[in-house]
Amino acid sequence: MKKIILLGYMGCGKSTIAKKLAESLEIPFVDLDEKIEEKANLSINAIFDTHGEIYFRKLEHQVFVELVNSPQKLIIGLGGGTPCYANNHELLNGDGVVSIYLKASIQTLFNRLSVNKSKRPLIADKNELEMKGFIATHLFERSFYYNQAQYKVVVDDKSIDAVVKDIVSILA
Ligand code: S3P
Fold first, then answer.
1. For residue 156, what pLDDT is reported?
2. In terms of C-beta density within 10 A (0-12 exposed, 13-18 middle, 19 or more buried), how is residue 130 classed?
3. Please, what's the b/e burial string for 66-98 (b: 16 or more CB within 10 A of its CB; e: otherwise)?
4. Structural domain boundaries of the chain?
5. What pTM does this model have?
6. By alpha-carbon position, which residue is closest to atom 16 of ligand 1?
7. Is the pLDDT of residue 1 over 70?
8. DSSP character for 113?
9. CA of 120 to the centre of ligand 1 (A)
10. Which of 54, 33, 53, 30 is nearest to 43 (CA)?
């Protein structure tokens, strides 16, 4: 297996868990959002502000394809929307790919995102009430794509180490 792909809604813990998993498996981790920022030489917020979401989604697709097709073993942490655009979900079941959906409840996501939204253009301007409704609807719309992953790990009320352990046993 060459690529381990972690996906899930904003705030489900993809980057934090991927970093720990990378240490434990000694496989390098790349964060798709960071790669996009490097390529555009702009922050995610600035890409949305300057060029708009469609431009971001095109870039996201391009960088994701490049990473999946790169020769080295990698753990790839996707952005929350990656599987839901440009048929990216089809890459979740490609050759040499293991894809894992980190599933979090609306409440968990709300708790985490309400204190951590400034770098996330889709929710940065929403108040608490708007956020809850937005997350519920958005998660529902996106679930079809998230469920294309080969495996699912529920992250609610679990420590990072416990989630990493679950993933390691899936990969064993
Ligand atoms: C997005 C999630 C973000 C980032 C962008 C769009 C989304 O990544 O790619 O703001 O559509 O859910 P995180 O899930 O890492 O916050």
1. 98
2. exposed
3. ebbeeeeebbbbbbbbbbbbbebbebbeeeebb
4. 3-166
5. 0.97
6. 10
7. no
8. H
9. 6
10. 33
Q: What is the pLDDT of residues 93-140, one digit of tens each?
A: 999 999 999 999 999 999 999 999 999 999 999 999 999 999 999 999
Q: Is the pLDDT of residue 151 over 90?
A: yes
What is the fold, at CATH topology level, of the domain defined by 3-166?
Answer: Rossmann fold (3.40.50)
Residues touching ligand 1 (Cβ under 6 Å) are 10, 14, 33, 44, 79-81, 120-122
Helix (H, G, I), strand (E, B), or coil: what is residue 96? Answer: coil
The residue written with tokens 């959002």 in the block is 33
- pLDDT in the model for residue 161: 98
CA 149 to chain centroid:
12
Ligand 1 probe mutation, 35, 53, 120, 131, most atoms within 8 A of CB: 120
